[in-house]
Design goal:
Length: 174
């Protein structure tokens, strides 16, 4: 009798883990800007202060191997605010680990936003150096929130928008 009870408990626990797959969705949003020298800067709108890790991927390398970030930015005490993080060095409470590659003109890059231990997932961004040539200091290039949280596979990806840094507060992030 005890063995069957234990087996039932294991099955129920396993099923609950499978149905709750994936991290919770954060209202955090990542965008890109440039500083006065034209150097790329990550801009994070961290609505709930739940985003504590940013993963930087070289998309070309990502397609060639298993998805492994080339650099990770970590903050053990993230603020509920908009913060700018220099892409090469980190800063403003964000420590960079790994080596940020020299950005190439033909490179495609991805930044993913995560909470501690990947409990949360925010809206990341993709960019190229060409994309950032349309951005001036004080502006942020980011994608709009999805109109449908479960778009079809053939849906056209959203177009990016450029807004002043002062307006980089999304509708879902008052």
């Amino acid at each position: 009798m005890r063995r069957s009870t234990l087996l039932a408990a294991v099955v129920v626990c396993g099923m609950s883990l499978m149905t709750a797959c994936g991290p919770r969705i954060s209202r955090g949003v990542v965008g890109m800007s440039v500083d006065d020298a034209g150097t790329p800067v990550i801009v994070l709108q961290n609505c709930g202060g739940d985003i504590a890790q940013l993963e930087f991927y070289d998309q070309i390398r990502r397609e060639e191997t298993a998805p492994t970030p080339v650099a990770t930015y970590v903050n053990s005490r993230p603020d509920k605010s908009v913060v700018q993080i220099p892409i090469r060095t980190g800063g403003n409470g964000w420590q960079v680990t790994g080596e940020v590659p020299a950005l190439r003109a033909d490179g495609k890059y991805v930044i993913q936003a995560w909470g501690k231990r990947h409990e949360w997932h925010g809206r990341g961004t993709k960019f190229t150096l060409g994309d950032l040539k349309t951005v001036e200091p004080g502006q942020v290039r980011h994608d709009p929130p999805p109109a449908d949280p479960t778009p079809s596979y053939d849906a056209i990806p959203p177009k990016f928008r450029v807004t002043p840094l002062s307006e980089f507060i999304t509708d879902e992030c008052p």
